[in-house]
Structure prediction request, 492 residues.
Amino acid sequence: MLPLLATFALGAQARRNDYPASILQSQITSLPGLDADTLAEYTMFSGYIDVFPAHNRSLFYWFVESLDNPSSDPVALWTNGGPGCSGLGGMFTEMGPFRPNADLSLYVNNFSWVNVANMLFIEAPAGVGFSFSDDVKDYSTDDNTTAIDNYHLIQGWLEAFPNYQSNDFYITSESYGGHYMPTLAQQIVLGNKAGGKPQVNFKGFFVGNPYTDPVENEKGQFDTWYGHQLVSYPTWQNWYKHCKDGADTNNVECLLARATLTEEVGSSIDPYALDFPVCNARDGSGPSASGVSERVMFMKRVIKDALGRPVPGIYAELVEQLEAEMANKRRLGDGDSDFPPTNYYPCESNWETEYFNQKKVQEAIHARPAVWSDCSVKVDYASHSMQNPMEPTYKWLIKTAPELRITIVSGDDDSVCGTLGTQSWIWDMNYTVNPNDDWQQWTDSTGQVGGYVVKFEKAFNFVTVHSAGHMVPETQPRRSLEAFTMYLKGDI
Prediction:
């Protein structure tokens, strides 16, 4: 059993004073919704890195200095999944330093990852959030282009912040980050080996509830529904028989079995967090395509479009709404100009959207004026990338860069990228389990079981977070921070 984790001490300690003069103009010196005394405890910078000068393809970043020891603490890049969703979404609803209130004021997130790391939040690919290109053709993209652009962003950021070039560098994500992280890691390894400057002091990646390949994803979803007793045994068995546990889905019987499962699970369960409450539409606080847009975007682009599966539960209507919005954009030829919808509901993602669409906020964070949304409807992401299995990339990384520490973390209350499916692809890769770390409990700082750990020799680590949904830092913030801290310390 891993040891009980200590409670985190909060508050700024050893602030850096070695920033180059050229970057000080990018420092955030005011932030609407946050009082001056609280803001003074944080050192933050934001702006753009041009990743393809020929098109002025520029990605937006927001950097927050660690509250512990920024000179020696690692730098961790965070991007959300989607594909096509903003890392600022994770920053303001998951592991960032602040969270929004309904009145658009901000409060401190005591379980932010900035307690233990310098955090670099990014918006990628171009077309997401405040990121842009002067050539609209750049908004059609894929995993390879996104990985190259993100690598160039890291290089550009390290050039702008040379005082961090010697710090350990990690990359982190969730969901479609299951594609973003392995492909970006591969690009960093290739870039470093080719002599790219500046060299990235790359140590590994930490990815939550990753979408890895279509077969494991389907198995993870429907087997998890049955495991949570949300569907009947005969219906689950019918799917298992006709879809071969997700391995043979190109037949009519499988399509019907999927539809029946989706009908049985109903419209009042959130497949991203099975045991958590959902916003209740009847009281006027229900979800909207903008309010839960990373989840909606994954449902549309991956589940419906790329994999051809029915959209479950509460997200079916939201995907229809989003498709109508996207069709309207195409008809008007007007990008995101009338998105998101005006009917905001009092849910955190919606407050975040309202917050970032304030002119004074965009000015404070040095962003170009834009209509901001959590996920971009103008990014056209290649279907072949979404269908491409990532296991070969993992094998390449393990063979080519064995020094990297790769940790896959999984909230066990998720069915969209369910732990059951993640376990299946991990064990199917046939790496040797360290007998001393074979499904060991880890204990959180309250004395409860935080989850389980498996370490594979000369490969990667696998960690579950008990009672966490798809967005682990949102649903289990304490355990998320503790798992991330164990990762940075080399325990997992």
In short: The domain at 21-212+387-489 is CATH 3.40.50.1820 (Rossmann fold). Residues 281-292, 330-346 have pLDDT under 50 and may be disordered.
